[in-house]
Specification:
binds magnesium ion, Rossmann fold, about 550 residues, binds adenosine-5'-triphosphate, elongated, 3 domains, Ribosomal Protein L25, Chain P
């Protein structure tokens, strides 16, 4: 956002103009989630845009819960959203705001519009209301209740509020223009009856304001200068402005719309994500396969990677689908810089080193990161028996050195940060499976070049068989096997990838990993990036992402 080489986006152009012309003296933005689900990667873009602009212009950004629909909202979501915004590293100005704190003020503005002849209580049922609304090509018809006296509407509104009128019987509507080419302007609903307790206002209200009536007024109360939302609200902007123009508001906010972030191979809709949770397709909102902030966190993605990714995206007036590989590029880039190196053998195969005494042991001190002195050194125990990965051994000795840079009988490999070893023999069980390799070390090769005549095929990772940590590894694939899983609205569940989780037990990690905490990032050498799972008591590592970047720019 503050990259001086980056061309400024259209919202920054507007802000520059507003500041220069004196229209605005302090930039106030807001991030206004409805607490009806957990935040996802799309929200992260909105968070980065709103908090980023506030930071850039030394203004402020409010965190405001748009809690106008008690039916779908919950305290659990409020807390999760607060945690996520904080974790991303943003700080809102002042206290957290809630639309429900403004219910009294909104109600008195509703009464004001009635007294001005600009709102009325309508008794059309929802079916008739729809029929009267007209279509894109045909104008609507006026409600028969449109001209009822203001006093009557005022009294009915009070009765609606106090619960004397049944749900669905009446609404409060703005009196604008039933012939407007913009359907949003055809006498939109301002209040609906909903006899439902609200998580913050309890039983106080039996009516709740619509998004359109609430949102702009909330912005005005908070002094929001630039109210930034996604493109689907573009058609609501004239209505936003109508309320701003027709109410005695304390400030005059303006709405701007930018394109939503959509990522391929996943869905970014709270409703659909909730369905995945409710119908147990995933473990929960923070399942590491979910595109939620909490899922990404549990998966091992850092807040910085999310922010760098979001900042790389255009803030434009068009919607677009971003390639998951682009996000993965930022995840990998960040982890490559910041993850400590470690060794974990995912498919262990025992190697007994016959010329290294069973009573002998050593410890090698190894850098935590090739070019980060600030990351702690590791201490690797070495001994008579070690584990290497099954995939790093082949029985086929005819494999060329070029093709198979790993261990075969009669040849050498370098153990990472330790000795060069040779495989001498192997042991199989009754089923023919290799259970053990018999090998030997080449003396005096730790931290030294190979002696004359010995040329290791490659470098492989290993752990001490006696001093290691048992662990489980979870490898994730994309949650959907179709690039646009929700292209046809009904069937996104049909495109769920049945192999999105591979659980591998019995892995052997270097000893220090036993003390890993959730949120510590590791590069398991030659395997990928991992973090400890926050939800398991035993030692479980989630694979954040593989090592290789297939994304071509
Ligand atoms: P969903 O469709 O997932 O339910 P929403 O827009 O209803 O999302 P809100 O809680 O209302 O969710 O969103 C809070 C803010 O985040 C809004 O300003 C909204 O425009 C923005 N936002 C939501 N989804 C995206 C997205 N995919 N890309 C960018 N901004 C988004
Ligand atoms: Mg919404």
């Amino acid at each position: 956002m503050t990259d001086p080489d980056k061309p400024i986006n259209f919202i920054q152009q507007v802000i520059n103009h507003d500041l220069e012309s004196g229209l605005v003296d302090r930039v106030i933005t807001r991030f206004p989630p409805e607490p009806n689900g957990y935040l996802h990667i799309g929200h992260a873009k909105s968070i980065c845009v709103n908090f980023g602009l506030a930071e850039q212009y030394a203004g402020g950004c409010n965190l405001r819960f748009d809690d106008t629909n008690p039916e779908k909202e919950d305290e659990e979501y409020v807390n999760a959203i607060i945690d996520d915004v904080r974790w991303l590293g943003f700080q809102w100005q002042g206290d957290i705001c809630y639309a429900s704190d403004y219910f009294d003020q909104l109600y008195s503005w509703a009464k004001y519009l009635i007294t001005q002849g600009k709102a009325y209580i309508c008794e059309l049922n929802s079916e008739d209301m729809r029929a009267f609304r007209g279509t894109l090509t045909e104008p609507g018809k006026n409600s028969p209740f449109r001209e009822r006296p203001a006093l009557e509407s005022l009294n009915l509104l009070e009765e609606m509020k106090t619960g004397q009128i049944d749900e669905g019987r009446m609404t409060l509507r703005a009196k604008i223009d039933m012939a407007s080419p913009n359907i949003n302007m055809r006498d939109p609903v301002m209040y609906r009856i909903k006899k439902m307790a609200h998580q913050r206002t309890g039983e106080l209200w039996n009516i709740y304001p619509s998004y359109d009536f609430a949102h702009g007024q909330e912005d005005a109360i908070e002094g929001v200068s630039h109210s930034i939302c996604t493109l689907e609200f573009a058609a609501n902007r004239p209505l936003y402005e109508w309320f701003v123009d027709n109410l005695p508001l304390p400030s005059q906010p303006r709405q701007y719309e930018f394109g939503r972030l959509n990522l391929n191979y996943t869905v970014t809709s709270k409703r659909k994500l909730k369905q995945l949770v409710d119908e147990s397709y995933v473990e929960g909102w923070d399942d590491p396969r979910m595109p939620t902030i909490s899922g990404l966190r549990r998966r091992g993605v850092s807040p910085q990677a999310i922010r760098s990714f979001c900042d790389s995206l255009a803030v434009a007036k068009t919607d677009g689908v971003v390639d998951m590989a682009q996000f993965e590029h930022f995840i990998r880039d960040d982890l490559n810089t910041n993850a400590s190196r470690a060794m974990c053998v995912i498919n262990p195969l025992l190697v007994t080193l016959t010329n290294y005494g069973a009573d002998k042991s050593e410890r090698f001190v190894v850098a935590g990161h090739p070019n980060r002195d600030d990351l702690a050194d590791r201490n690797l125990p070495f001994g008579h028996q070690i584990y290497i990965d099954r995939n790093d051994f082949s029985e086929d000795i005819s494999l060329s050195r070029k093709k198979f840079k790993r261990l075969v009988i009669g040849d050498y490999v370098r153990l990472r940060s330790a000795y060069i070893i040779r495989a001498d023999d192997l042991i199989k069980d009754d089923s023919g499976e290799i259970t053990e390799i018999i090998g030997s070390i080449v003396d005096d090769t730790v931290g030294k070049d190979a002696p004359e005549g010995i040329r290791p095929r490659g470098v492989i990772h290993w752990v001490s068989a006696t001093d290691c940590a048992d662990c489980t590894v979870k490898i994730y694939d994309r949650l959907f096997n179709k690039a646009a899983p929700d292209a046809d609205e009904e069937s996104f569940l049909e495109h769920i990838n049945p192999n999105s989780l591979t659980l591998i037990e019995g892995c052997k990690a270097e000893l220090g990993l036993a003390n890993a905490s959730a949120g510590d990032h590791y590069q398991f050498e030659r395997e990928g990036y991992f973090t400890r799972d926050s939800k398991s008591d035993s030692l479980v590592f989630n694979c954040t992402i593989g090592l290789r970047d297939n994304w071509k720019i």
